[in-house]
Design goal:
570 residues, alpha/beta, Sulfate adenylyltransferase, Rossmann fold, six-stranded mixed sheet, five-stranded parallel sheet
Length: 570
């Protein structure tokens, strides 16, 4: 009999079928309707199939969904704080019914699982945002996803897993809950402290987890998230390389590194409780919860979404019921006079405290400044510097948006020339007309086609950016949700700078050399932005430039000054 903590709900719900059943289901799948899963859905389904989301056996039905929202529990009373749902479009769902089966596939078309549908409903996404995340502010990543990415219809039902989503990276460091439990049994571990992280580990983190293991006389599971995290986070390849460097500093048989394919919601207190349950399924007895654990930062009013100890309080509230004990994350600071790390509340007043915040670390990387050895290890610094050179050497996208005739193309062309004059960076211009000819010639001007055109521009720009180049985009891009989608995509590999060319429509009409506004006013052109189709003003652009009373050169200079002040160009 195992000495490890039991999984949540009593047993691991591993949903992969046997080989004979798989063969039969694969034959069936050829006749079933297929859904290609997005990145978040692929993370969720892997955690469902491997038992990481035990006791769930599929995507939540409506009753469980409503219960999770209102009570942090499934409808049978089992604690579960985050809704795990499968969203689909109205078009996809229109011919589906209860007990229908669909095949869920990855991007390459590989069949991952068969879903037998039990529930089909249209959720109230505003209520979900309020109940789960406590806000409707689009600066919250999960809320932004709900409002701008999530489809209107939810499907609930049970899963029959065919295979896990494929990973070609760090395969030896990926473990299912049952594999990790077997490893713990082999090692003779019983008290296991899980450390959740989505950031590189530094000396303070190592000291923290070391102290936690010593106090409990237990072992450590360093369990970083390698699924979707917060936009702007260090990419998981770099983070894992850093983790591996830190793991070399631990005593033998004290700690183990394992990667978890989780898609974070940044849901603060609820997410902390969710993380604790997941670690329970992986065999952990204790879980370190930090200040503002899984917090997304500040809202649109520059106030924190969650209180600093809200997450810790919620996990403590349910600790006895779930059987996982919470260890508070103690802020560790370097004490200069003693040349060691100490909890901040144990440092005598007369001694000098040193600490580098995440913001300051990013600033030092951005500017190529020194990162002291007391803060982190030299080999970790090397990995970070290689992945994140100074801003002046990183890729970025400048995305101009505005009405036809606003001046965005003129500014974009002139800006390209000025940057090329410098001669130190590769610059690509993706003007609206150029893209229409070369990438989107088959598209019309319906909303669907306009969205697709902007998404194509965003994809090309993201590839340029992540490879260290400069992309200048100048489409009309009238819809906020698509622009936000591009911001998220491009920000994964570099910097996204939105410039709203805010020239009023009356000025744009006066400049209309093609006569397009006049034709639209006469009804000869339908769906023309600003006339009979809306232009949604950007919510939070990095720059807004009205070209009514300034020259092209002055407008370009505004952009160049911004780039210089932010460190993107010399």
């Amino acid at each position: 009999m195992s000495h490890l903590i039991k999984p949540h709900g009593g047993s691991l719900c591993e949903l992969l079928v046997d080989s004979k059943t798989k063969s039969s289901l694969l034959k069936d799948s050829l006749e079933l309707k297929s859904l290609t899963l997005n990145d978040r859905q692929l993370c969720d389904i892997e955690m469902l199939l491997n038992g990481g989301f035990s006791p769930l056996r599929g995507f939540l039905g409506e009753a469980d969904y409503n219960s999770v929202l209102s009570d942090n529990r499934l409808s049978d009373g089992t604690i579960w704080p985050i809704p795990i749902t499968l969203d689909v479009s109205e078009e996809f769902s229109k011919d589906l019914n209860f007990d229908h089966r669909i095949v869920l596939r990855d991007y390459e078309g590989v069949a991952i699982s068969i879903l037998t549908i039990s529930d089909i409903w249209e959720p109230d996404l505003k209520n979900e945002a309020k109940m789960v995340y406590g806000t409707s502010d689009l600066k919250h990543p999960a809320v932004n996803y709900l409002f701008n990415n999530s489809k209107k219809i939810y499907l609930g039902g049970s899963l029959q897993g065919l295979e896990y989503p494929k990973h070609y990276d760090y395969q030896a460091d990926r473990h299912t809950p049952s594999e990790l439990r077997a490893e713990f049994e082999k090692k003779g571990w019983s008290k296991i402290v899980a450390f959740q992280t989505r950031n590189p580990m530094h000396r303070a983190h190592k000291e923290l987890v070391n102290r936690a293991s010593q106090e409990l006389d237990g072992n450590l599971l360093i369990h970083p998230v390698v699924g979707m995290t917060k936009p702007g986070d260090v990419d998981h390849y770099t983070r894992v390389r850093c983790y591996k460097k830190v793991m070399e500093k631990f005593s033998p048989n004290l700690a183990m590194l394992s990667l978890v394919p989780l898609s974070m919601r940044m849901g603060g207190p609820r997410e902390a409780l969710w993380h604790a349950l997941i670690r329970k399924n992986y065999g952990c007895t204790h879980f370190i919860v930090g200040r503002d654990h899984a917090g997304p930062g500040n809202d649109s009013l520059d106030k924190p979404f969650y209180g600093p100890y809200d997450a810790q309080d919620l996990v403590v509230k349910y600790a006895d019921e779930i059987g996982v004990q919470m260890l508070p994350f103690k802020l560790m600071v370097y004490v200069k006079e003693r040349a060691e790390y100490m909890p901040i509340d144990e440092v005598p007043e007369e001694l000098t405290q040193l600490n580098i915040s995440g913001t300051e670390l990013r600033n030092r990387l951005d500017k190529g400044l020194d990162i002291p050895g007391w803060f982190t290890y030299s080999d970790v610094v090397k990995e970070l510097r290689e992945a994140y050179p100074p801003k002046s050497k990183r890729g970025f996208t400048i995305f101009f948006t505005g009405l036809s005739g606003s001046g965005k193309s003129t500014i974009a062309n002139a800006l390209q020339v000025k940057l090329l004059e410098n001669g130190r960076r590769r610059v690509t211009l993706l003007d609206g007309d150029i893209v229409r000819i070369n990438l989107s010639s088959e598209l019309g001007f319906s909303k669907k086609h306009r969205d697709l055109n902007i998404q194509r521009i965003g994809f090309v720009a993201s590839e340029i950016t992540k490879n260290g180049g400069i992309a200048i985009c100048a489409p009309i891009a009238p819809y906020e949700n698509v622009r936000q989608g591009n911001r998220q995509l491009i920000s994964r590999g570099g910097t996204y700078i939105e410039v709203h060319v805010s020239t009023p429509i009356d000025i744009c009409e006066k400049r209309d050399v093609k006569g397009l506004y006049a034709k639209a006013r006469k009804g000869l052109i339908k769906g023309f932005t600003g006339i009979d189709d809306p232009y949604e003003v950007p919510a939070n652009p990095e720059l807004a430039i009205d070209t009514s009373n300034i020259s092209q050169q002055e407008a370009v200079q505004i952009v160049l000054e911004y780039l210089k002040n932010e460190g993107y160009i010399d």
